[in-house]
Amino acid sequence: MIRACPTVMNRLIDVCVVGVPDWEWGEVVTALVVVREDISTGELRDGIAPFLSSYKRPKFWLKCTQLPRNTQDKINRPLAQEIALLELTRQGKSGQP
Asked: Engineering a disulfide at 68: which of 32, 40, 76, 93 sits with its beta carbon 3.0 to 4.6 angstroms away?
């Protein structure tokens, strides 16, 4: 859980982790993050490394201005997954099988 990583969470406002379909792996772990201060992808990876096994770590990190929410103010995971898939496909990093 990224939320259990204090070195990373102090620099983030919000985070949502979703699985995104991928040709090679079937599905890849992707994190959508709203940052409090500028932080690089490398710093995010390094910050969670001591807390998460390698297979649980996000392969891709996408910075957002806000996460999609439903009327109960909970993160709309299906929409977040769709946003992640569209962005990764646009960047040529992932594809739907």
From this structure: 76
